[in-house]
Design goal:
- With 140 residues, the protein is mainly α.
- It has 2 domains: 19-91, Helicase, Ruva Protein, domain 3, CATH 1.10.8.640; 93-129.
- It has helices spanning 2-16, 25-37, 54-68, 73-84, 97-129, 136-139.
Length: 140
């Protein structure tokens, strides 16, 4: 009897951990799209659609539950952002601190280009100032 229980209990636990897709194919497609936009809080660089962690499984269930309740995509994203912060979204909002996240890479690129230009101009000036005109005596 113990042997049978030892075999059945893991099967029951495994069955509970399998994601149950929504009945409506369009709603499931929306859920899958949202799951690719939401970051796993345990894995951090992996969407919840691909993560195998328990928290990701719970987050996928929340996405499906909210879509089944009729929530819009924006409402689902807002719920996760309120709960876990804007970091949980792969595409952060474009208002408030999200503007900084969107603009920082571009500002850093512009800063690097300006610094490179100034450094090259400074080297060119130094190289030109070190040269002196050749005197007629030095030519011979």
């Amino acid at each position: 009897m113990k042997f049978l229980a030892a075999l059945i209990i893991p099967l029951i636990m495994a069955a509970g951990s399998v994601d149950q897709p929504l009945d409506d194919p369009q709603a499931e497609a929306r859920a899958q799209a949202l799951m690719r936009e939401i970051r796993c809080v345990a894995c951090e660089n992996e969407p919840i659609s691909q993560s195998a962690s328990e928290i990701a499984r719970d987050m996928r269930k929340v996405v499906r539950d909210q879509i089944a309740e009729g929530q819009s995509d924006a409402e689902v994203r807002d719920w996760f952002a309120q709960r876990y912060g804007d970091f949980v979204l792969f595409r952060p909002k474009t208002d408030g601190g999200g503007v900084f996240l969107w603009m920082f890479p571009f500002a850093l690129l512009i800063y690097a280009a300006v610094m490179l230009f100034l450094m090259m101009r400074s080297r060119a000036r130094t190289a030109r100032s070190g040269l002196s005109p050749i005197d007629a005596d030095e030519e011979n």
